[in-house]
Write a structure and sequence with these properties.
The protein has 2 domains: 70 residues, no CATH class; 82 residues, no CATH class. 76% of the residues lie in helices and 3% in strands. It has 8 helices and 2 strands; from the N terminus they run H-H-H-H-H-H-H-E-E-H. Helix 6 packs across helix 7. The longest helix is centred in the N-terminal third of the chain and has 32 residues. It is globular. 6% of the residues are buried.
Length: 177
C-alpha cells in the first residue's frame, strides 16, 4: 500500500497491525475491488482476442481455472481475492447477526488458518465450528437465540452495526480507562 502511494508508511504499519479497524476494512475493500476489476479486464481482453481469432470464448469460471493452472501469479491473486471475499462474508455475518452465514464462513476459514500456521486457531477453530453446528441438538434454547441474532450485540439502532461480544467488551474497557 505504501509502494503504491495509497497510504503513508506509518499508516501502512497501522493497517498491517490492525490498529485502525475502519481503515483496515477500507484497505481490504480497495484490494478486493482492484483484484475484481483487473481479473474482469483480463477476461474481457481474452474474449476480444478469442473472438478476433474466430474462437469461442471459454466461460469465465473455466477461464479462471485455466489461468490458475497456467500462471502461478494469477493463482496467487485469485486466492487473495477469495480470501478477501471470505473476510467480507465473515464481517457481514457478524454485522447482520446471521448465524448460519457465520458458521458457514468459519468453516471455510479453517483451511486458511491451517495454511497460515496459526497453531492454536488451527487446533480449536474446527472444534468450535463443530460445536456450533451441533448445538441445536445439545442446547436447543441457545441455538434458537443464536439464530435470532443474539450471538452478537447491537449497540445502536443502525442496521448492519452489530458487533461480536468480545469487540463490545474491548470498547467498554477502553471507555472505562
Amino acid at each position: 500500500m505504501t509502494t503504491a502511494n495509497v497510504t503513508s508508511a506509518g499508516r501502512g504499519d497501522a493497517l498491517k497491525n490492525g490498529s485502525f479497524t475502519a481503515r483496515s476494512q477500507l484497505a481490504h475493500q480497495v484490494t478486493a475491488a482492484a483484484l475484481f476489476c483487473l481479473r474482469n479486464q483480463a477476461y474481457n481482453s481474452y474474449k476480444v482476442e478469442a473472438e478476433a481469432e474466430g474462437n469461442p470464448a471459454t466461460p469465465f469460471n473455466d477461464w479462471c481455472t485455466l489461468m490458475e493452472t497456467q500462471h502461478p501469479q494469477f493463482r496467487y491473486w485469485s486466492k487473495t481475492f477469495n480470501l478477501e471475499v471470505l473476510f467480507f462474508q465473515f464481517l457481514q455475518s457478524q454485522r447482520e447477526g446471521n448465524f448460519d452465514l457465520n458458521i458457514s464462513t468459519l468453516g471455510r476459514i479453517v483451511p486458511w488458518i491451517f495454511s497460515t500456521d496459526h497453531f492454536h486457531y488451527a487446533k480449536w477453530l474446527p472444534v468450535h465450528v463443530r460445536d456450533l453446528m451441533q448445538q441445536q441438538h445439545h442446547c436447543p434454547g441457545v441455538d434458537i437465540e443464536f439464530r435470532v441474532g443474539h450471538f452478537v450485540t447491537q449497540k445502536t439502532t443502525h442496521c448492519f452495526s452489530k458487533m461480536a461480544h468480545d469487540h463490545v467488551h474491548e470498547q467498554l474497557i477502553l471507555m472505562l480507562c
